[in-house]
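Researcher: Good morning. I'm working through a list of sequences from a screen, and I'd like to move beyond sequence-only analysis. For each chain I'm collecting a predicted structure so we can compare shapes side by side. This is the next one on the list. No need for commentary yet; just the structure.
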Amino acid sequence: MIIRNTILVLFLIALIFGCKGNSSQQRLAKIVDTTQARSEMTEEQKRILIVQRSLAVLNNSNPDSLAQTAIKKDSIYFICVHGYTYEVPGINDYEKNYKNIVPLKVIPGTSDAIMTKDDEELAIVANKYATRFNKIILNHLNK
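Model: Good morning. Structure tokens for this chain:
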């Protein structure tokens, strides 16, 4: 069950954010290979892998392009990060103004618990990425 959920999460990350330079078959093969290896990893190693994968995906993806694609597909959502609760960077009063209108997609591996340099880098990159993406979506909604 855990392995199946892991495969699903990694597959969704790849689909949502995409990767440059690899065919979809190559990306899927990497996800499957990584998932098989994960069954032998500790929970901390798995967490670190998720953080590193999210960093790689965000660094190879463009929030402007992703937002424009979401708008074109009429698949509007905001990107959020984990903190003590979910945080929606760039959006004021999400709970009050948008909770029942705009769904959220969480960047995997984000947390308010910063334990490694990668955690710190992911927090910075994820917040910048989500802020940019969310502002584009918000501007679209306000038109």
